[in-house]
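Thanks for the sequence, V.! I ran GDP-mannose pyrophosphatase right away. Repeating your input here for the record:
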Amino acid sequence: MSDEQLREQRVDSRLAYDGDFLQVNKDTILLPDGKTATREYILHPGAVVVIPLLDDGRVLMERQFRYPLDRVFIEFPAGKIDAGEDILTCAKRELQEETGYTATDWQHVCTIHNAIAYSDEHLEIYLAKGLQAGQASLDEEEFLETFFATPEQLLSWVRDGSITDVKTVIGIFWLEKMLSKTW
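Predicted structure:
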């Protein structure tokens, strides 16, 4: 089976919005049947997600207000990849900045694309172990709380809808499989 019968081709592209963090492109594309259509999508630099696992089996988590949905979410530490930044360097930086913790053992878990219909965003998920506490250094406009939870609590919160953030849900499922050694 070939992808060619599904592939869309860009005919024209223009920047529809240029923000401080995100850009939106509006492209004219040629469909496989020869007709044209429009695609609007968000250009995103990508981000890292860190699953910080303590030696005692607990997980370091965050609570953070997210403006678009007007509520506080339970999440793994995460952050945007700076232009030209190595993804592991970014993961280490974000863990330290947001939580104060550093880690001695890092494992790349997976890459996810969380909004494929309207964004090129990708998230690089890492497992961090060998954690050592330190001083957080939050960005000027960043406010969050950290706390500890067990993997079982996290799964329960996914099940009951307390955790709905997609990067965190996927990370919790990966963590469960890694801890049970089924993956």
